[in-house]
């Protein structure tokens, strides 16, 4: 949310909470305060995303 200029970036900065955007780089919500790219019809999900996400989280220690 920090990169998207969202509220979690403002409130959560330095608190120790991680945020992962799932299902690509496009959001279907389109919140007015957010700078994340939006679309009603985002690209299909990557079939490897669950494994890649788990690997990324495991690498955090």
Description:
This protein has 61 residues and is mainly alpha-helical. It has one domain (1-61). 28% of the residues lie in helices and 0% in strands. The chain is built from two helices and no strands. The longest helix is centred in the last third of the chain and has 11 residues, at 49-59. The two termini are 22 Å apart. 0% of the residues are buried. Residues 39-61 are annotated as: Disordered. It comes from Nymphaea colorata (pocket water lily). This is Lipoyl synthase N-terminal domain-containing protein. GO terms for molecular function: 4 iron, 4 sulfur cluster binding; lipoate synthase activity.
How many helices? The count is 2
Main beta-sheet annotation: none
Q: Helical content, roughly?
A: 25-40%
| Inertia-based shape | flat
Distance between the termini: 22 Å
Q: Would you report the number of β strands?
A: 0
| Class by alpha and beta content | mainly alpha
Number of domains: 1
Per DSSP, what share of the residues sits in E-state strands of 2 or more residues? Answer: under 5%
State mean pLDDT (0 to 100 scale).
81
Unreliable sequence segments = none
Give the H and E element order: HH
Radius of gyration: 13 Å
List the helices and strands and how they pair.
Blueprint: H1 7-12, H2 49-59
GO cellular component, one term: mitochondrion
Organism: Nymphaea colorata
Protein name: Lipoyl synthase N-terminal domain-containing protein
């Amino acid at each position: 949310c920090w990169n998207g200029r969202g509220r979690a970036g403002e409130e959560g900065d330095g608190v120790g909470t991680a945020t992962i955007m799932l299902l690509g780089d496009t959001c279907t919500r389109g919140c007015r305060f957010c700078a994340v790219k939006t679309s009603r019809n985002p690209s299909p999900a990557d079939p490897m995303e669950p494994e890649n996400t788990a690997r990324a989280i495991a690498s955090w220690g």
